[in-house]
Design goal:
With 407 residues, this protein is an alpha/beta fold. 29% of the residues lie in helices and 26% in strands.
């Protein structure tokens, strides 16, 4: 079957040959096809001489017109189910090599991390037998049914009982999107509970944020547990309380969780109850509140915390919003640093892709100067290895964090 070709201009193939998966509109010389390819259609990427470079999903709107999901110098055909099965099996084996597959203490992890696994526009999170799929490109959205079937074949019934598609809200106002979320394979499990480093968490992939849980903070949560003993802990933007559970398990004297969402706080309380008996659970309190207001309020002022976690949602999703995001991060970190006990620790994060590590670090440094606190840098934090970015696609390094000792 012939597929449309995106022919690159002379000299515009260098980034593709360096395995960068994005093809920009300015690199295109012409399109060889009977008609303009549809949004999400599979196209072949070729250089100006017609030599094959790979397969991509076409995007007619915006600066990125092609997202390459297969690099090859061989003539290309549109992928079939066997192609996707091979991709998913390779990703599964990479997670096995990380010690995640068959781990009795951790039953949830990211199986497909978009460009990091060579599949731009696709996220698949694995929750103890249920794969939750999110398409972030029209190409992956249009292929979601065959992708679900390929996941079932690749993992087999011993590892996969259901595939849930949660793509309805990830493509904005795209005209061809809009199918409701739902199960593409199997159905709901009797108990949507997973283990992470031995801790139990209830996952709500039906109505929760993202795919239901922020798996990318697994290693950072463990580090909070390491430092929590004997400390009074504040977990802001707590969502489902992951950091709170680890802090309690690590021996914190008290843990306060704060989130503006009543639904999130209800899940936090469920997760605390899943892991602790009443006496230990009594060390935890939940507050439905704005994090900025809470940091300025009486709880933080009258009895200062000596370990504070700032893990806000992305303050910027585009370069145009980066300056506003920088101001937000600076103000948030200043509020936390102003009130934290001497000798305390600050775990602070940004998941804004357009705010790189250097900018985030300098912003937090400016916040410390604003409030006149001396700090030492203990750790740089980032994504765990199941969220690894492609070495050739640094844009995939979205999560960054700092652990600061506050004098």
């Amino acid at each position: 079957m012939n597929i449309p070709q995106l022919v690159l201009q002379p000299g515009k193939d260098a980034s593709v040959r360096r395995f960068h998966p994005w093809v920009f509109s300015g690199a295109i010389d012409r399109i060889i096809a009977p008609a303009e390819p549809a949004d999400g259609e599979v196209v072949a990427i070729v250089d100006h001489r017609g030599s094959p470079l790979g397969l991509a999903h076409f995007q007619p709107h915006g600066s990125i017109v092609g997202r390459i999901f297969h690099f090859s110098n061989q003539p290309q055909q549109a992928p079939d189910e066997a192609f996707w099965v091979a991709k998913f099996r390779a990703a599964w084996e990479r997670r096995r090599a990380l010690g995640l597959v068959g781990n009795p203490h951790t039953t949830a992890f990211r199986l497909i991390h978009a460009e990091g696994d060579g599949l731009p526009g696709l996220i698949v999170d694995y929750y103890a037998g249920t794969a939750v799929l999110q398409a972030h490109s029209m190409g992956m959205y249009r292929a979601r049914t065959v992708l679900a079937q390929a996941l079932a074949v690749a993992l087999g019934p011993q590892h996969l009982t259901a595939v849930y598609d949660k793509s309805a809200d990830t493509l904005g106002n795209a005209a061809d999107a809009g199918a409701p979320n739902g199960y593409l394979v199997g159905g709901p499990p009797p108990d949507p509970t997973v283990l992470e480093n031995g801790h139990r968490f209830r996952i709500d992939w039906l109505t929760g944020q993202k795919t239901g849980f922020f798996l990318d903070q697994r290693d950072s949560r463990a580090l909070v547990g390491h430092y929590a003993r004997g400390r009074r802990v504040l977990n802001t933007f707590c969502y489902t309380g992951g950091f709170s559970v680890y802090a309690l398990a690590g021996g914190a004297t008290a843990v306060d969780s704060v989130d503006a969402s009543k639904t999130a706080m209800a899940l936090t309380d469920i997760n605390v109850a899943l892991n602790f008996a009443d006496a230990d659970a009594a060390r935890h309190r939940s507050f439905v509140a704005d994090a900025f207001d809470f940091l300025r309020g009486p709880e933080a002022d009258t009895d200062p915390y000596d370990l504070v976690i700032l893990d806000p949602p992305a303050f910027a999703k585009s370069r145009a919003a980066r300056q506003r995001a920088e101001a937000g991060y600076r103000r948030l970190n200043a509020e936390a640093l102003r009130g934290i006990k001497p000798g305390g620790l600050l775990f602070t994060f940004s998941c804004s892709q357009v705010v790189d590590r250097d900018l985030f670090t300098s912003t937090v440094r400016a916040a410390a100067l604003d409030v006149g606190r001396s700090v030492r840098l203990l750790h740089y934090l980032g994504q765990p290895p199941d969220h690894a970015a492609s070495f050739f696609h640094p844009e995939g390094e979205y999560l960054k964090g700092l652990v600061l000792a506050v004098e």
